[in-house]
Amino acid sequence: MKTSLAEVIEPEVIEQGYLITRSDLKRHPYVIRSLDIRDLTAVMLLQRNVLVNMSNREYCVPILAEEIALMLEGDGDSVGLFIQDQLYAACFLLFKVPNENNMARELNFKDEELSLVSQLELSLVDFEMQGHKLQQKLAGILVQRAERRKNSKYIFTTVSPYNYPSIQTVTALGLQIAKLSKLYYDWDRYTVYKDLSQPIRLDIANPINVSNTAFVDQIQLLSNGYRGFSQFKDKDGIKIMFARVL
Question: Which residues of the chain have pLDDT under 70?
Answer without folding.
Answer: 1-8, 56-58
